[in-house]
Q: What sequence folds into this?
């Protein structure tokens, strides 16, 4: 018989497998001045895009 807390080597499902939530992971948005179509504007951009150089700071 498999138990919920028993580890997998002994035939269980593992101890942390049943406590997973459907958490929504949101992007890390920052408010900054950037150049958009040749004009300086205040926009929201994620830190991943800022680090990658997809946003040119004004």
A:
């Amino acid at each position: 018989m498999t138990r919920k807390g028993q580890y997998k080597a002994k035939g269980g499902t593992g101890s942390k497998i049943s406590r997973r939530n459907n958490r929504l992971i949101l992007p890390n948005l920052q408010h900054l001045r950037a150049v958009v179509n040749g004009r300086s504007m205040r926009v929201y951009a994620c830190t991943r895009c800022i680090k990658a150089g997809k946003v040119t700071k004004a």
About this structure: The mean pLDDT is 85.
